[in-house]
Amino acid sequence: MSEIEQFTTIALISVIAFISPIIAEKIRVPAVVLEIILGMVFGVSFLNVIYSSEWLSFLSLFGLIFLMFLAGLEIDAETVLKSGHLKKVVAFFILSLSLSAAFTILAGLSFFYAIILTNVAVGVVVSVLREIGTDKEEFGQLNIVAALVSDFSTMFLLSIYFLTGYLQIAFAFAIILVFLAAYRFGKLVIWYFPEFISKWFSDEPSEIGVRGSLAIMILFVGLSSFLGVEAILGAFLAGVLLSITFRGGKKLYDKLYGMGFGFFIPIFFIKTGSELNIAQAEEGLDLILLLLAVSFAVKIIPSMIFIPNFGLRRAMSMGFLQSTKLSLTIAGVAIGIASGVISELEATALVSFTIISCLLSPTLFRLLYPRYHNGL
Amino acid sequence: MEYILVSTGDRAARIASKLPDCIIIDRDANSAKRLAERGFEVLNEDASNPEVLARFDTDSKIILADDDEFNLKVAKVAKLLGFEVFAIARDEEKCWLYESEGISRICGSVEALLSTIFEKNRYFEIKVGEEMDGKTLKEYDAGEDCMVISIFRDGKVLQPFPELEMRAGDTLALVCGEQVRLTKNPFDNILLLKSEMTEKEIKEAEMVAERFGANLIVFEKVGNAYACVLEGRSDSVNLEEAVKILKRSDEFDLIATTLKEKNEDVLKLLVSSFPTLILSGKEDYRKILALVNNSNPDVMINIAKAFSRFFGKVKVLFLDEEQIKHFSKFTETGLEVEVSTGNPMVDAVREFKSGYNLVILSLTNDVGNIDRGILWKIILDKETSVVVVE
To answer: Both B225 and B294 in a single domain?
Structure first.
């Protein structure tokens, strides 16, 4: 492919990344959904003007790594641990995963599907709760904690799912040991060198905090690659490490979110969309509908344990909200297809299911949630 | 006659105008004449002469508002005759002289005196004169019992804040009373919970009690129990029971003790009842830091204010920008306020590491996300004393 074609593709993707959130806001859908759809429009499904190249593959991979890193950064361990419902939330997750696993066995699918079905889009959950003003209330907090627990656990399961052989499993645990050691080391650095660490969170032109955070992310990704473990595990753990070590620091986080969601991550979503052949979605329609039905069931049934706390209607609405899928499902699909766990047809069906789920689940939640429904 | 005011000049007029049924005893003939011309009931006599006071019924209350030396002379006579005495100490350092004469109601200003007499919070207005023009509110000493609540300027009402510059002609609105005094000096009785303490640590507790003018009551640990003499008990009790008794007695405002190792349960038990000072053997608190790691920081702010009043500057570090709303609570005090703009935990550690004699913090720790391990490192630091609130 010529250099001009490569730059044209990057330029086109940059324009799509730029206009997506603007249009998404007008039509009230998440920007990620529109990025995937526009990727489909400009990709193999229709116009076929997004050409694959090493550049694009690298930027897209970096986007995926950044996405996993920021997913880790969003894990708020303090909120989870302080929650009064932690035991019930863990039970909710285990029930949901068990039901998903039972479904995959019955349907003859791989465990990969169970992980995807148990996953939840934390970002969408939080923004929907914020929108209806319940994010600070007990019900809202419970939903956020449940989403965080599901997100962390499925992310972790997804990372180790792709491990093959005992040696790789041992290596994955080696990374976790490095993670724990780094956490201890981080605490010591904060205590003994607070002056230096405070520069990470200041507005210094050298942007030492951004450089340091990216260095940690890439070190962990490099370590994962070196040990033959999926890079997303390293990126995710690097994000969690920063989150639990520093426990806040809006300025730095905003800069990292800006870098990630402002450039690299949209490239990943647009490229993923561009590679999907929408014509195959029709073939996979049965699978899409089945996944939708099961995704609701595996969240609504376990949410019944919250009836004593919030009543039937709210507990059920929680089930719908917790079934929302988005970024991590797309990331899982990208890894799944690359590692040969799922076929292209399945990938298309999974992405279509994700898009529908992301639009449908919050809508059903809003309809069912009593306070919102009453317009109070 | 309900009130006998021993005073002179404008001060006498100011106080008398607020009191019903009052006679002024003015030792200065010219002043007495002027006061009489203004319509006040005045006696031009020397109130330190027992024969003068003996003419009045001892049900009357005596208010001493002359200079300290003369006040003390009259106080001796008045106490001997059995009067209830209120006094305005001009020089706060001479308060102990009044106390030694058995006068417990000593007030720092006319407004405070009136609030004490009427036993409720009172509202006053004071005009800012030329001598105060350009000075900031934090330089203005309203006395131990009073605080500025607003400032009237050119038809506008200004909210007070420490850096607000006063202008001649401004009107300061003050509220005075016992409740205000309690916010300025919340420590009347300090309990020293004594177990395996060094001489230096005991001296530190004594130093704190002396500065606040508080009583220091010692509670000694014998073996695994505390010798308890409250409520007529003389037996030994465990810490939990001791704290319960202390809480019931409602006499203590601060516990001073030491902690050699991390013990969350004990500290929680103590701070759930009283603010707790963990001693480290400091001779003075020259640098004080308040780490505002509590979403409801009123108690912390009051303690920071009290320490700033008796020890000098206190740096208040807000760990969340939202807490800046509490800034309006800082008036007329030596508080330096800073808000964490980066990572709150790192900023807290960095500030702590810059060297403080005393740190004020909260065990609730629901703001700033300070790691529990790091919080305990600060509490147990050998170089710094720590006031822990709930």
So the answer is: no
Measured between alpha carbons, how far is B165 from B162 in angstroms, rounded to an integer?
Answer: 8
Distance from CA of A305 to the nearest CA of B (A): 29
B342 to A194: CB separation less than 8 angstroms, yes or no:
no
Percentage of chain B surpassing pLDDT 90?
24
Tell me how far the alpha carbon of residue B286 is from its chain's centroid.
18
Identify the pLDDT of residue B237.
Answer: 64
Distance in angstroms (rounded) separating the CA atoms of residues B114 and B261: 49
The CATH number of residue A126's host domain is: 1.20.1530.20
- Measured between CA atoms, the residue of chain B closest to residue A188 is B374
Contact A178, A223 (CB under 8 A): yes
Residue appearing with tokens 């609405």: A317
- Under the banding of pLDDT at 50, 70 and 90, the label for residue B333 is low
Last residue of a domain, one of B164, B183, B202: B183
Domain span at residue B289? Answer: 284-390
Quickly tell me which residue has 């052989």 as its tokens. Answer: A165
Among residues B119, B222, B129, the alpha carbon closest in space to that of B169 is found at B129
Which ipTM value was assigned to this complex? 0.77
Burial readout B57-81 (b: 16 or more C-beta within 10 A, e: otherwise): eeebbbbbbbebebbbbbbbbbeee
- Based on the structure, what is the number of domains in chain A? 1
Task: Render pLDDT for B60-93 as a digit per residue (tens, 0 to 9).
Answer: 889 998 888 898 899 888 888 888 888 887 776 6
CB atoms under 10 Å from CB of B36, counted, come to: 15
Return the residue of A nearest to B373 by Cα: A187
> Which tens digits make up the pLDDT trace of A241-250?
999 898 777 7
* Cβ pair A246:B350 closer than 8 A: no
Write the pLDDT tens digit of every residue in B190-210: 888 887 788 899 999 999 988
- Please state the rounded mean pLDDT for residues B292-310: 86
Residue in A241, A128, A107 with CA at minimum distance from that of residue A177:
A241
Lowest mean pLDDT among A96-100, A108-112, A350-354, B95-99: B95-99
Instruction: List the structure tokens of A203.
Output: 């507005």
